[in-house]
Every structure is written in C-alpha cells, then in structure tokens.
C-alpha cells in the first residue's frame, strides 16, 4: 500500500484549502483505496518554534515527528492559501525544520512527487501564492504537479455536507490528484 500525505499550507483551520486537502484524501481513498493509503497531516498540530530563533543544533521532538511523517510517504498532496503573494509562514517554518532535521540538510521532498493545488472562497486565494510555492518546492527538489481549481461562478468547492462538488472532484481526478496517484503507483510497480 502506497502512503500519500495530504496537508494544507494554510494557517487558517477550516479555510477552503484546509478543507480541500481533507476532502482530497477522501477522494483518493474512494478512487485508489486498493493501492493508496491517505495520511492526513495538520501543520497546526505541531508545536514548532520559529526556526529563525533556534540554535543551529536544535532538533525539537515535534520537528523530528514531522520529518518522520514525511519520510513515511511516497508523495504529497498540498493545498495552499495565498499570503500577500506567497505562502504561509507556518509552511515555510515547517519545511525549514524538515531540512534542519536531516543530517545532509535535505528535505524529504527531494525527488518526491508533490501535487500542489489551490482554491479560494473569495478574491484570488491560492492563485497568487502558487508560483512562489512551486518555485520553493522545486528548489527543494520536489517534482511539482500544479493545479488551480477553476470554480467558474461557484465560489465554494464544497456542498452543504462538506463534500467536494462533483465538478471539483472530477477536476482533481483529471488533474493533480489523479496524476500524483498514477505516478506513485507506477513508481511502486517499477
């Protein structure tokens, strides 16, 4: 069974992108459950100190636990909000700790398939932040599969029960989620 990590780069619990990552994990299990095991991760559950204030040799237990979660998966689905044209400080700090916890100062993202998705409830949401996050992930060695959900006139990608709308689910399966699953399944079979 191939494990895929589902997380949001948002620091706002309950945001559209936070809910999108959770919903995408459900879609992956429904569509690829015989081959893919979704693992959901909430960065807000990790008490990570500000990396800028830490000494060079600090390795907090929470950072080691976060790195172990990334080390145990074959790919990542990330849904991220936009913060003034870039990505969240919590995501940047978490990735910094991943790197700090590696003896060679590499992240578990090096060579890993990462599906990067974004949506919004108003304004431009993840649209403006994705280029910066794509570049950052590629600098870390990730193989990025980008997608921005096209909502058309629909503001919310979820129905009243919190499930993805069929249109959005199809976009994910035809786009970054489907491609991510296909790539990690093919790599495991090789």
Automatic annotation (TrEMBL):
Residue ranges of domain NADPH-dependent FMN reductase-like in the record: 3-148
GO molecular function: FMN binding; oxidoreductase activity
Source species: Afipia broomeae ATCC 49717
Name of the protein described by the UniProt record: NADPH-dependent FMN reductase-like domain-containing protein
One of the Pfam families matching this protein, by short name: FMN_red
GO cellular component, as recorded: cytosol
InterPro entries on file: Flavoprotein-like_sf (IPR029039), FMN_Rdtase-like_dom (IPR005025), NAD(P)H-dep_reductase (IPR050712)
Coiled-coil ranges from the UniProt annotation: none
């Amino acid at each position: 069974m191939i494990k895929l990590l589902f997380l949001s780069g948002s620091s706002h619990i309950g945001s559209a992108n936070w809910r999108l990552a959770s919903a995408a994990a459900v879609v992956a299990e429904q569509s690829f459950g015989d081959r893919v095991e979704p693992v959901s991760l909430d960065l807000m559950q990790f008490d990570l100190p500000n990396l800028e204030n830490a000494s060079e040799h600090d390795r907090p237990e929470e950072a080691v636990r976060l790195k172990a979660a990334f080390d145990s998966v074959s790919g990542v689905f990330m849904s991220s909000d936009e913060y003034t044209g870039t990505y969240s400080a919590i995501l940047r700090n978490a990735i910094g700790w991943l790197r700090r916890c590696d003896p060679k100062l590499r992240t578990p993202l090096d060579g890993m398939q990462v599906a990067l998705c974004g949506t919004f409830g108003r304004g431009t949401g993840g649209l403006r932040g994705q280029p910066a996050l794509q570049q950052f992930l590629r600098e870390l060695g990730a193989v990025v599969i980008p997608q921005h959900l096209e909502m058309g006139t629909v503001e919310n990608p979820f129905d009243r029960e919190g499930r993805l709308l069929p249109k959005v689910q199809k976009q994910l399966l035809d786009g970054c989620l489907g491609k991510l699953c296909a790539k990690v399944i093919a790599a495991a079979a090789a």
